[in-house]
TrEMBL record:
Residues 52-160 form the DUF402 domain. InterPro entries: DUF402 (IPR007295), FomD-like_sf (IPR035930). It comes from Exiguobacterium sibiricum (strain DSM 17290 / CCUG 55495 / CIP 109462 / JCM 13490 / 255-15). This is DUF402 domain-containing protein. SUPFAM superfamilies: FomD-like.
Length: 180
């Protein structure tokens, strides 16, 4: 069984004060849920390291926009700093996403893509997916589907196919949920 994660991140102890909102959109360019989590106050910043660079992805005043495109096997989290600048887009490859009684969720298949403002696209957690396959958390079909999704997304990002809609719409959706 895959790992279930929730958009509101209500169990995340790092967040002292938050504001969360969500909305279902059905437009010509995007159909699905969008959520925004404003990290008003956190216990301490969170920094991640990619190769030689370290990037802060959590801090007071940061916000995380999540896009759950209907019928797709990925979720896009775009992180903005306290000044509203885009920090990174983090794409979780998933078995499915939707809504249950607890909220908007995704069943994570461990494999992730990170797109940095520089245009660099990184594959993360391939080792976690491999371990999940070896231990039976994901089966061979799910394993293969995760890699197929990554390849399809990399192609769309590389060729700017439809400007990969969730990334192209991140600022629009972020601002839309600023009004909610």
């Amino acid at each position: 069984m895959t790992q279930r994660k929730y958009a509101a991140r209500s169990s995340w102890k790092r967040i002292v004060k938050r504001h969360y909102r969500e909305r279902y959109l059905e437009t010509t360019s995007f159909t699905g849920y969008v959520t925004r989590l404003d990290l008003i106050e956190v216990t301490h910043p969170l920094l991640v390291r990619y190769s030689e660079q370290e990037i802060q992805i959590v801090g007071d005043g940061y916000s995380w926009l999540q896009q759950f495109p209907a019928g797709q096997k990925h979720v896009v989290t775009t992180m903005f700093n306290a000044h509203g600048q885009l920090i990174q887009s983090y794409i979780d490859i998933c078995l499915r996403h939707g809504r249950d009684t607890t909220g908007i969720f995704w069943d994570d298949l461990f494999l992730d893509l990170v797109l940095l403002p520089s245009g660099e696209c990184l594959i993360l957690d391939a080792d976690e997916l491999e371990t999940a396959r070896e231990t039976g958390l994901v089966n061979q079909d799910q394993y293969a589907a995760a890699w197929m999704e990554v390849e399809m997304l990399q192609h769309q990002i590389r060729t700017k196919e439809l400007l990969f809609q969730p990334l192209a719409l991140a600022r629009v959706h972020h601002d839309l949920l600023n009004e909610a």
